[in-house]
Design a protein that fits this description.
Layout: H1 6-15, H2 18-23, E1 29-30, E2 36-38, E3 50-53, E4 58-61, E5 67-68, H3 70-78, H4 82-93, H5 111-128, H6 135-143, H7 148-154, E6 157-159, H8 165-171, H9 177-182, E7 186-189, E8 192-195, E9 200-206, E10 212-219, E11 229-231, E12 244-245, H10 247-256, E13 261-265, H11 268-277, E14 282-285, H12 292-302, E15 310-314, H13 319-329, E16 338-342, H14 350-357, H15 359-363, E17 370-371, H16 372-381, H17 389-404, H18 411-423, H19 427-443, H20 476-491, H21 497-503, H22 511-522, H23 531-538, H24 544-552, H25 560-590, H26 598-619
Parallel strand pairs: 13-14, 13-15, 15-16
Antiparallel strand pairs: 1-2, 2-3, 3-4, 4-5, 6-9, 7-8, 9-10, 10-11, 12-14, 16-17
Function: RNA polymerase that catalyzes the synthesis of short RNA molecules used as primers for DNA polymerase during DNA replication.
Region (Disordered): 441-460
Organism: Microbacterium profundi
């Protein structure tokens, strides 16, 4: 495959704000001068340790150690090749790439082709919704309160009833049957290859960045022997356990709401109804139960680092809906946000509620929500006759484990009282049973894994632990070197380069910081965009992680101008330290050399020059 010219790779990166790219997947907020932070997309965490510095085009997680530039972020998140990452960003900013052989962009055969195929299919389906055959589909939408504008906003389309209408349209655009199979758009059977979606309304399923990765299709005709809803099968770009329908439309309002709220509904039309009614943070799963992977996605988009957010689950009032709510309850503790359940009057789903009672009734669901724990308790009690002593005791034993799961020491006593009121029992009796249930649950919890036995010395090579900021000694010398290096990596491009070189001309006293200094001094152009990131990557192990932390840690200043001034002052202090060290060495040498000798006179002249130079830096 032809290689993209390095100049173009650098140019695309310099024109791309990494904060915008990361911000499409992670809710970012200010973390000091020039720094943003959010929940890490590479590991599950409760509080944010993932930092992004748009000015240097770099990200770093202080929790798991992942770091890199905008290209590595896309490669990790979307599992694309380096070339595909560059081409995707170039297309985003409208930049024409050049290849080393002088040719035009090659035809990729990886993920980018699957994205392109799904995008082309979505356009085809949207166009078909206007056809005469699609009258049944338009009628279906109209009967549910969705006009042409609503269909266009959500990209709803129509798959014609024939066996190969979509396939012919896309192969005419250059897509191969193998690519369409890999994208899940066609199926292979005894009749050969044929359209997967036929005679159905089709909703495009997009990832958080807005790229179409699959479809959900609702049957319209009685002679359709398939399921009511048919989704794209698992592909290398469509993983249903990680996808939430409508998140691309909802993410902006989710991250900026006060409170930050996510409304989880059960179907595509429910998402449409909620958004049209004003609940623009509604999302839905795609043919699977709400699970742990969905939570990870939502927490990153919400910036779920405290209990101020809300996650509201709306479920049908039928038995299936109740079970779905309880399944969601089992994952409740993965959120920092408060979780609620909202069930509409008469068990209506949001789509039917909007049809029968209007937009205000859909918005009113938020006023009728109840805490998830309260819902789970009531659900557990519903199977008992609370008019009898036996029923009360059985209900207490059934519900006590739920209350025992509440880890918040302020919430749990309140729910003990709620349970006591529901049962008509003494709160003390309820508390005793809850504590017993808690002990029983602890006894049945999986045993902690015991640490592995020590490996005998010499039997296996010992990995050297990476050096981190937290492991540096707390001494004045190390603090100065650490601050100067942080300033050099983050704001060195704004400081006179001769001053930087003068500050860093003497080896540092701490070996880890010295390893980083060597790379910074060797950098050919410290004013070039991305130089600091290249320097970090060039630092030898086990010091590279420390270099990344120095580049990404919030700089102690109010603004960019203050950070540059502070960096300049740190460099000045480094120079003064170097001068003082040299002076002390010369004073020792003077004692060992005759005063009237050439060497003695040279030493005294150098001491005089040092004093003049020191005074200049002291007064600056």
């Amino acid at each position: 495959m032809p290689r993209i010219r390095q100049a173009d790779v650098d140019e695309v990166k310099s024109r791309t704000n990494i904060g915008d790219i990361v911000g499409e997947r992670v809710a970012l907020k200010s973390a000091g001068v020039g720094s943003l932070k959010g929940l890490c997309p590479f590991h599950d965490e409760k509080s944010p340790s993932f930092h992004v510095r748009p000015q240097v085009g770099y990200y770093h997680c202080f929790g798991c150690g992942e770091s890199g530039d905008v290209y590595s972020f896309l490669r990790e998140m979307d599992h694309v090749s380096f070339t595909e990452a560059v081409e995707r960003l170039a297309g985003r900013i409208g930049y024409t790439l050049h290849y080393e052989d002088g040719g035009s962009a090659p035809e990729n055969s990886g993920r980018s082709r699957l994205y392109a195929a799904n995008t082309a299919a979505a356009e085809f389906f949207r166009g078909q919704l206007l056809s005469a055959e699609a009258e049944t589909g338009r009628k279906f939408l109209g009967e549910r309160g969705f006009d042409a504008g609503a269909a266009a906003h959500f990209g709803v389309g129509y798959a014609p009833r024939g066996w190969e209408g979509m396939m012919k349209a896309l192969t005419a655009q250059g897509f191969t049957r193998d690519e369409l199979l890999a994208a899940g758009l066609v199926s292979q059977g005894q009749r050969g290859v044929y359209d997967r979606f036929r005679g159905r309304l089709v909703w495009p399923i997009r990832d958080v960045t807005g790229q179409t990765i699959g479809f959900g299709a609702r049957k319209l005709y009685d002679d359709d022997q398939g399921p009511k809803y048919l989704n794209t099968p698992e592909t290398i770009i469509y993983k249903k356990a990680q996808v939430l329908y409508g998140l691309d439309l909802a993410k902006r309002d989710i991250s900026r709401g006060d409170p930050r709220r996510v409304v989880v509904v059960e179907g595509y039309t429910d998402v449409m109804a909620c958004h049209l009614a004003g609940l623009t943070t509604a999302v839905a799963t795609c043919g699977t139960a709400f699970g742990a992977e969905h939570i990870k996605v939502l927490r990153r988009v919400m910036g779920d680092d405290n209990a101020s957010g809300e996650v509201v689950f709306t479920f049908d009032g039928d038995e299936a809906g109740q079970k779905a709510a309880l399944r969601a309850f089992t994952e409740d503790d993965r959120f920092n946000a408060q979780t609620f359940v909202a069930v509409a009057p008469n068990g209506l789903d949001p789509c039917d509620l909007r049809l029968q009672r209007g937009d205000a009734a859909v918005r009113g669901l938020m006023d009728a929500k109840v805490p998830m724990f309260e819902f789970a308790i009531d659900r557990r009690l519903s199977g008992f006759d609370l008019a009898t002593v036996e029923g009360q005791v059985g209900a207490l034993r059934a519900a006590a484990p739920i209350v025992a799961e509440i880890r918040d020491r302020l919430l749990r006593p309140g729910y003990e009282r709620v349970l006591a009121r529901r049962l008509g029992m003494d709160p003390t009796e309820v508390r005793v049973e809850v504590e017993r249930a808690g002990r029983a649950g602890a006894n049945h919890a999986p045993a902690r894994r015991e640490p592995a036995e020590a490996v005998p010395a010499g039997s296996e090579p010992t990995a050297v632990a990476p050096v981190t900021l937290a492991s540096l000694p707390r001494t004045a010398d190390v603090a100065l070197e650490r601050g100067a290096m942080m300033g050099a990596l983050q704001y060195g491009h704004q400081i006179d380069q001769a001053t930087l070189a003068r500050a860093f001309e003497v080896p540092f006293r701490h070996p880890a910081l010295e390893a980083i200094r060597e790379v910074v001094v060797a950098a050919s152009d410290r004013t070039r965009v991305g130089w600091a990131m290249d320097a970090v990557n060039a630092v030898r192990e086990p010091y590279r992680l420390l270099a990344g932390e120095l580049l990404m840690s919030p700089f102690p200043a109010r603004d960019e101008e203050g950070a540059a001034r502070s960096t300049a002052d740190l460099f000045r202090r480094m120079i003064l330290r170097n001068l003082d060290r040299e002076k002390n060495e010369l004073l020792g040498a003077v004692q060992r050399v005759p005063a009237d000798s050439d060497g003695g006179r040279a030493l005294r002249m150098r001491l005089r020059d040092l004093d003049i130079e020191r005074q200049r830096f002291t007064e600056s």
